[in-house]
Amino acid sequence: MQPLSILCHSLRDIDTYTTGFPRGDGQGHADIFRAVKHCLPGPYTFILTASKELPKQCVRYGTTTAKYASRKNVGIRMPDDAICQAILEKMDAPLISTRSPKENEWMIDPVVIADIYGPEGLDFVVNGGIRMADPSTVVDMTGSSPKIIRQGKGPKLHWMVAEDDDESAFHDDDLIPSAT
């Protein structure tokens, strides 16, 4: 089964369905939340610990490795895509999404989906035309440092550690200090 992500319209949605981003404590420790605010909405998926508000079905499925299978984590996105933003704003609720298709992977036409499932099987279909979208950069926020586990469209920011980097390369002073 494919990993699931939650598409959110606001940081408030993220705080509802996860335990949120690590925040500074006013004692000079870095405030990852403030750093993340500068890149959202954007081409990033952040893996965060799910809150009890997130239905269990969203964290039970989609885990592809033993490392993530035992945890209750979820990918969170605030896409910068205009169509996604419009849908999220109109729905006034987060949406569940699967991963981006891989290169040369076939995608079904929205008209065919509507014909197959009919009105009883779909709430709506969006036909945004032919669109080329690069996959998001996936950043695991559940460890001691924000670690990129898939490089995608979003660039590696100075406060992120690449998966093959030494985690000791991450320093609190790479982030925006918390307000005192």
Order of helices and strands: EHHEHHEHEHEEE
The third-level CATH topology is: DHBP synthase
What is the tally of beta strands?
Answer: 7
- What topology, given as strand order, has the largest sheet? 4-1-3-2-5-6-7
Range of helix content: 10-25%
In DSSP terms, counting alpha (H) and pi (I) runs of 4 or more, how many helices?
6
Unreliable spans: 176-180
Largest sheet: 7 strands, mixed
User: How does the overall form come out from the CA principal axes?
Assistant: globular
CATH superfamily: DHBP synthase
Structural class: alpha/beta
Domain YrdC-like: 1-154
Protein name: Threonylcarbamoyl-AMP synthase
GO molecular function: double-stranded RNA binding
InterPro entries: DHBP_synth_RibB-like_a/b_dom, Sua5-like_dom, SUA5_domain
Describe this entry's structure for a reader.
- This protein is α/β, with parallel strands linked by helices and about 180 residues long.
- It has one domain (about 5-175): DHBP synthase (Alpha-Beta Complex), CATH 3.90.870.10.
- About 25% of the residues lie in helices and about 15% in strands.
- It has six helices and seven strands.
- It has helices spanning about 10-15, 30-35, 55-60, 65-70, 80-90, 110-120; strands spanning about 5, 45-50, 75, 95-100, 135-140, 145-150, 160.
- A seven-stranded mixed β-sheet has the order 4-1-3-2-5-6-7, with no helix packed on it.
- β5 and β6 form a beta hairpin.
- The longest helix is centred in the middle third of the chain and has 12 residues, at about 110-120.
- It is globular, with a radius of gyration of 17 Å.
- The model is unreliable at about 175-180 (pLDDT under 50).
- One of its GO terms (molecular function) is double-stranded RNA binding.
- It comes from Populus alba x Populus x berolinensis.
- InterPro entries: DHBP_synth_RibB-like_a/b_dom (IPR017945), Sua5-like_dom (IPR006070), SUA5_domain (IPR052532).
